[in-house]
């Protein structure tokens, strides 16, 4: 039975980069028998324009039926004056919570071809391939009580609550171990168990989940050390699993190891393996409509979709190889361009990936 892919181009450069990723999906359908059906919906500013809401009911219906979702990006200056609940970014939060996408996968990959784009020495980062699994719907960003209160002496105090239930830790740990099984079978759980009780429980639960995955090697690291190790020797990691806030910070640091925002895909999964796949960058309104955006992060989001929602690891590897091949051919969009290479636009880059897939 064909699998149902919902395509949500969104705003700004979203439609341009998603069009290239769709070319890749079409090529996989035509040449490799990938059995999928694509449907398109509106989200973000496009959702507001079409139906007066950033996550319209029609999109919600389609999303709930989808096996996987491919999203471009949302946001644009023209929506900045809308009431907060109607702004494009609210559409993203709404779809994540509607589908319970609690597991956020942020790979930091740096192919040898782009090692010079990093601010770290090429030998430290060339060939980097880390997966950060961040818990996305719990922890201190959601914990209650929270607020700002005035104390008896008149001084104000801000407070948030870091709270994790065993079941929340268990499902994110399981997600990380499942992913490790498809990679190098190593999980590093990052916490602050020397100071926080929440982390003590986190560690205990992660260890009990590890019993179900004897093939995977588990290690633990304190978050301060993890930040240091990510910059010092990032290639030591395979999968990192961590709570929401630590993951937020570490995944941005890891992303920057690779030097280019236009090259990084991401996935957010729920317990059923349904996932939303999107580049980590935004809608880049400053370059929208110019045909110069880098589509590779979105194309690599397709590769993640093949691997994590569609169970098509071989096709995922083919897409990764095609991306590597176009970089080896010397093609570069403006954001990753350096002297001596060939500068190309969005569509040419997409076509080159499709040609490499077919070749
Ligand atoms: P951004 O990621 O859109 O852009 C940052 C810079 O990177 C810009 O100079 C942009 O031109 C460049 N850039 C981004 N993607 C690129 C690509 N594929 N190719 C070449 N260059 C690229 O971040 P921003 O400017 O802070 O935000 C713009 C809008 O995007 C805002 O409305 C913001 O809320 C929204 N946003 C959306 C998401 C999302 O949809 N997941 C994420 C972040 C920001």
Tell me what you see in this structure.
The chain has 359 residues and is α/β, with parallel strands linked by helices. It has 2 domains: 1-109 and 260-359, Isopropylmalate Dehydrogenase (3-Layer(aba) Sandwich); 129-257, Isopropylmalate Dehydrogenase (3-Layer(aba) Sandwich), CATH 3.40.718.10. The protein is 41% helix and 20% strand. It contains 12 helices and 14 strands. The strands form 3 sheets. A 10-stranded mixed beta sheet has the order 2-1-3-12-11-4-5-10-8-9, sandwiched between helices. The protein is globular. The two termini are 28 Å apart. The relative contact order is 0.16. Bound molecules: nicotinamide-adenine-dinucleotide. The site of nicotinamide-adenine-dinucleotide has 22 residues, from helix 4.
Summarize the structure.
The protein has 2 domains: 1-109 and 260-359, Isopropylmalate Dehydrogenase (3-Layer(aba) Sandwich), CATH 3.40.718.10; 129-257, Isopropylmalate Dehydrogenase (3-Layer(aba) Sandwich). It has 12 helices and 14 strands. The chain has helices at residues 14-32, 45-51, 57-65, 88-98, 122-125, 166-181, 197-210, 223-232, 244-257, 296-308, 313-328, 346-358, and strands at residues 3-10, 36-40, 68-73, 103-110, 128-135, 147-150, 156-159, 186-191, 217-222, 239-242, 265-269, 275-279, 331-332, 342-343.
